[in-house]
Amino acid sequence: MHRKRRSHNIRQGLLRRVPSLPRALFVGLVMVILVGALNACQQDVQGPTDQMGVGSTQHAPEAEGGQVHWTYDGETGAERWGDLDPSFEVCAHGTQQSPVDLASPIPVSLDALDIQWQPAKADMVDNGHTIQVNVPEGSWITLDGRRFSLLQFHFHLPSEHTYEGIRSAMEVHFVHQAAEGDLAVIGVFMDVGEIHPAVESIWDAAPGFGEPSATLPELDPSALLPEDPGYLRYAGSLTTPPCAEVVSWVLMTHAITVSRAQVDAFEARYPMNARPVQRLNRRFVLWPQ
């Protein structure tokens, strides 16, 4: 598969391209964005989140999407998700869909993201769409003063989000849920470079599709974070059916590296499991300072 790849470090691109705007404009934009995103999430949490059953299972639905058969291409592919089931309608008609292109972010002042992930035993499954690692209780993040518990993380090839139209080789999504039911997902780009030991341990232990889950005695999710803590934010959705618009997205501005052999190993299972980029519409991508 021939793919365009993004630079390992997009922060230098951000520093070159983001204009200097008046502080008053920053504050006004942030207030509009945050109020709109909060209202959207409050409206959506009562419906799509209940259908997904997030509160009743550790297997968060971004990697599963219920019992209706769907794929990334063909008759049940991403362009037709909205027609497959009434509960998937927002995939076709939503206005805050994910993934998006992360070009032209706006620098803003926001509360810092606090990541509190703990090493623990982890169960892995191949759910027919990706390799998914289910995490026990005890890891969480604090975002906008709210606590979101880490449920699971999983992988996409190529990356679902882009920066100025360019994709990374892969992307890992860490799915968190608040007590109210809405979600926060941290995305980390994965570029081709040196072998990644944590990814290697996951690949080695991951079962095949339809096989029983496998267990890693101890896995530290933080091993899959870049050293630099910079990130971008926007309000969006799940990237798989039912595409519920209940997600606060956090995309790290630095990538981790995986070897070409590690990318090829995942590609042998899933040659492509990335949803096309969606319209940003009236949203903004924020760059917390």
Distance between the termini: 37 Å
Number of helices: 7
How many structural domains are formed by the residues? 1
CATH topology (fold) name: Carbonic Anhydrase II
Radius of gyration: 18 Å
In CATH, what is the class?
Alpha Beta
- Average residue-wise pLDDT: 84
Count the strands?
13
Can you tell me the overall shape?
Answer: globular
- Coarse structural class: alpha+beta
Strand content: 25-35%
The main β sheet shows up as: 11 strands, mixed
Question: Regarding quaternary structure, how should these chains be classified?
Answer: single chain
| Helix percent band | 10-25%
**Which series of helices and strands comes N to C?**
HHHHHEEEEEEEEHEEEEHE
Supply the CATH architecture.
Answer: Roll
Low-confidence stretches: 1-8, 18-65
- CATH homologous superfamily name? Alpha carbonic anhydrase
Please outline what is shown here.
This protein has 289 residues and is of the alpha+beta class. It has helices spanning 11-17, 23-45, 48-52, 81-84, 90-93, 197-205, 260-269, and strands spanning 106-108, 114-116, 120-126, 131-134, 140-143, 146-156, 170-178, 183-192, 214-219, 231-236, 247-252, 256-258, 286-288.
Core attributes:
7 helices; disordered N terminus; alpha+beta; two-stranded parallel ribbon; Carbonic Anhydrase II; eleven-stranded mixed beta sheet
